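Prompt: Have a read of the protein record below and flag anything odd:
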Amino acid sequence: MNFSLSVNKDLLLITMAGDLMGGFEGEKLYREVEESIENGTRRCVVDLSQVRFLNSSGIGMLITLLAKFRNRGGDLAIMRPSDQLKKLLIITKLEAIFQSVDFADEAFIKLIVG
């Protein structure tokens, strides 16, 4: 898994690529997200458009990220999951927990308005 973070309009954008399976990269991601939250970021969108595979550890990572933001009064949305990832979210009933958007601007509006 590769990832990059950027902040735009008080919205943290996490772009992920490859296979989302937890591991060492996940711990690095958590540290960087915590730093962003400590700096006042309360909304996040995770771009999954380049994620090929997601296992239970990857699902756990997404849930942990969501919890980090919600515990601080914020929220998180996922952006552009593939059809395969959408099916997995439906099977696991997580589509009811994660807001799914097509564009970061859409996430910004949804996460503010609710």
Remarks:
- The chain is about 45% helix and 30% strand.
- The chain has one domain: 2-113.
- The CA atoms of residues 42 and 71 lie 10 Å apart.
- The first strand starts at residue 2 and ends at 8.
